[in-house]
Amino acid sequence: MAKIIVDGVEVDVPPEYTLLQAAEAAGAEIPRFCFHERLSIAGNCRMCLVEVKGAPKPVASCAWGVRDCRPGPNGEPPEISTKSATVKKAREGVMEFLLINHPLDCPICDQGGQCDLQDQAMAYGVDTSRYHENKRAVPDKYLGPLVKTSMNRCIHCTRCIRFTTEVAGVSDLGAIWRGEDMEITSYLERALGSELQANVADLCPVGALTHKPEAFHYRPWELTKTDSIDVMDAVGSSIRVDSRGREVMRILPRVNEAVNEEWITDKARQIVDGLRLQRLDRPFVRENGRLRPASWQEAFATIAAKVKGTDPKRIGAVVGDLAAVEEIYALKLLMESLGVANIDARQDGTVLSPAHGRGSYLFNTTIAGIEDADAVLIIGSNPRIEASLVNVRIRKRWRVAPPPIGLIGENADLTYPTTYLGAGPDTLSELLAGRHSFAEALKGAERPLIIVGQGALARPDGLAILSLAAQLAQSVGAVKDGWSGFSVLHTAASRVGALDLGFVPGPGGLSAGEMAKGGVDVLFNLGADEIAVAPGAFVIYQGTHGDRGAHRADVILPAATYTEKSGTYVNTEGRVQLANRAAFAPGEAREDWAILRALSDVLGHRLPFDSLNALRAKLYEAHPHLAEVDLIAPADVGAAVQALAGLGGSVGREAFVSPVKDFYLTNPIARASGVMAECSALAQERRLVAAE
């Protein structure tokens, strides 16, 4: 540790700290525009000037290290000042320069009320200018459907360029020309091609980049802010849902170092319009082949008449990808009371099961733990589109010290160099037998990481492939004291929670695929829109949107989305997370657990709770780890891997294929969004151009 004096306060900080970090450790506030904790240092804006004792002029604190400061003549610690008259005058001069060309359009700027430049101008700006030349004019750029540009406001902090290049891993933004003629632009003015592109608008300290879908829809001080969790994938990113009245207006990231740092995907952010479009807002009953509006009592009576006349062996329940733990648990209790064993939450056909231990289906390394891996093997997954923020962590690890990264499956651009090993199970067998050079890289690594994706598991031979991967993890020492390098990457927000609850077929029960193909006469469909149900079965669909599940339904029970209810989710690493209600469901739509509780009364099998708190009390009694919010319950990874390795089985020769065909249209909320449809069309266009 190094000693440094900041405004008379002596602090101990790591010598690699910058003066800006040291000042903040001492409690001093340093203004900045170009500096960002997660990006490389540019030193462009000079707003962070501080006075170093003995230096001839103020220095940029973001680019000056503590170890570079000279001690005093008698060995005293270096001394800096952040509040002296010299510093204040220097910052006022910087602000005056920044405002020479910046348009004074704050009343109509979408960034107003959340603009760093506006805030700092209040502290360091003056009410007159000594410059009377015409302000420069810069044409606005086209960056796609998500980012709106007003380039006259740009102060060339280059945060956007550094983010797209360093974090997102795509070189879509850059600077052209020099000096007064410098412009930030996308090459050939094409739409940005990253799944994380909208984060640049959050990073912009002025109003040059703003969120296009939200333009002129609200002012930030009008909004009610609610902490929640993203359910567009299984990462469980921390988000903040901002609403006005009954309507969600925007979704922003929250800082969570263990999961998403401070980024979210474009899908997580911009599905806001999908929350209100194509919504189911009243019950429906199919009569003479057509759906007609009905009352709740009529819908429940129709269901009860059908269920009471059906053998429990011919009744089944399937859970979709966006369901919270509470409603899955309520549905499980209802099915148990009816004597139904045909239950499944794996609508994609994955072979993961709690029978092999919790460690057999979790991302055991944890998302933050990726940064400690020194060799990575990805099997049957494209993390860039299946779990973009897991991919960001792998890229972050690669940028620090590139480990060998092997890929088995689709040869996709993951934004970092990979060694493409092969397309299918044959390559995995070669690695296990030591007939591939990458096997040596895994065995030579101290902390090897094996990531198994759903593209390898959602197939008939998935269990044999999972067993092969477990055998490989054992042979290369991926699971040992202090390191759990065997990890399963999920794509559905509800999957881990459902597996924790044991929502899988009971003894003699049918899987989701078997039920959908005609194995049952009555099917309870809890938001499962990615599975096609064959004709013949009576389908009760409980969901939010008029998607595939609603089209096939005989009775529709309108439910609340994740922003309209309080629910528990468990992410791919097993972290228990809580989503809070930010708005209210439209029309007659209700929370899923409440619908199931009311239905149980009509069916004559009343569930043992009357409130969400009572439901959770029973849930926590049966599954205590679900009460530990933001914690990961320990799993015996070694025993799980050993159990999987002993399963064996024969594997096919088909190549692994990612289950995510279109990143932007993976669930009913996204498919209802016009913004996501536009993004999907552009992505398809890019793929066609790349194929040529």
Outline of the structure:
By secondary structure, the protein is an alpha/beta fold. It has 22 helices and 28 strands. α11 (425-433) packs parallel to α14 (462-475).
How is the biggest beta sheet arranged?
7 strands, mixed
Q: Care to count the β-strands? A: 28
The backbone outline, from C-alpha atoms, is globular
Q: What value does the average pLDDT take?
A: 93
User: Which stretches of 5+ consecutive residues score pLDDT under 50?
Assistant: none
Q: Percent of residues in beta strands?
A: 15-25%
Fraction of residues in helix: 25-40%
Separation, N- and C-terminal Cα atoms? 56 Å
Number of helices: 22
CATH top level label of the largest domain: Alpha Beta
User: What is the CATH topology assignment of the largest domain?
Assistant: Rossmann fold
What structural class do the secondary elements suggest? alpha/beta
Structure overview:
- Helices cover 29% and strands 17% of the residues.
- The chain is α/β, with parallel strands linked by helices and 692 residues long.
- It folds into four domains: 2-98, Ubiquitin-like (UB roll), CATH 3.10.20.740; 106-214, Alpha-Beta Plaits; 284-353 and 494-627, Rossmann fold (3-Layer(aba) Sandwich); 364-489 and 640-659, Dimethylsulfoxide Reductase, domain 2 (3-Layer(aba) Sandwich).
- It has a seven-stranded mixed sheet with strand order 14-13-26-25-24-15-16, with helices on both faces. A five-stranded mixed sheet has the order 2-1-5-3-4, sandwiched between helices.
- Helix 8 (325-338) runs parallel beside helix 18 (592-603).
- It is globular and about 90 Å long.
- It starts with a strand and ends with a helix.
- The mean pLDDT is 93.
